[in-house]
Design brief:
Elements: H1 2-19, H2 30-33, H3 37-65, H4 74-85, H5 99-104, E1 109-113, H6 117-120, E2 128-132, H7 133-139, H8 144-147, H9 150-165
Antiparallel strand pairs: 1-2
Helix pairs in contact: 3-4
């Protein structure tokens, strides 16, 4: 991988010397090569929709916090998107969350990796949950199903199933 990256860098540097700096560089990874034009186009549209959604979310957060869009931090954006996705509730306990408190106070809620990052190195939003800080501390390096037991576990599974089967903004598999 390092050799391939180094060779790519050399080629790009030579192109810059000959033609000047490009406006953009599109890199296709090997998994994309097997996809049809329609599949890649659909993926591109989905990426643009996600980008637009994140931009709108930043504007909403800036309005709530009375700051500029540039002042909105990445963790605030993640918290807002997860808050919306989870219906304003802690994913593990089911307790209602106050959006302003979530955005302003880092100690109220935390963004937790559902499957611990150290196990699968997945830092995407699909592997994150907005949870009360105490729940995250008690969960430690476990999955939610390892952490929760009894009625709390049943309620968690019911919350996930409800989020998965809803028509609007359904969870991915």
């Amino acid at each position: 991988v390092l050799r391939a990256i180094n060779e790519t860098r050399k080629v790009i540097n030579q192109l810059v010397r000959i033609y000047g700096a490009p406006e953009c560089i599109n890199v296709e990874v090997a998994r994309d090569l097997g996809r049809s034009f329609l599949e890649r186009d659909l993926l591109d549209k989905r990426n643009h929709q996600n980008e637009s959604k994140r931009k709108k979310a930043k504007e909403v957060i800036a309005g709530l916090l009375q700051c500029t869009v540039d002042d909105v931090r990445g963790v605030q954006l993640d918290k807002y998107l997860l808050y919306q996705e989870q219906g304003g509730k802690c994913l593990y306990s089911g307790e209602e969350l106050d959006l302003l408190s979530v955005l302003r106070d880092a100690h109220v809620c935390e963004v937790d990796h559902i499957v611990p990052y150290s196990l699968i190195l997945d830092n995407t939003l699909q592997n994150k949950a907005l949870v009360l800080a105490g729940e995250n501390q008690q969960k430690r390096q476990r999955t939610p199903l390892m952490y929760l037991a009894g009625v709390r576990r049943e309620n968690f599974v019911a919350r996930i199933n409800a989020m998965y089967t809803r028509k609007e903004n359904a969870l991915s598999q």
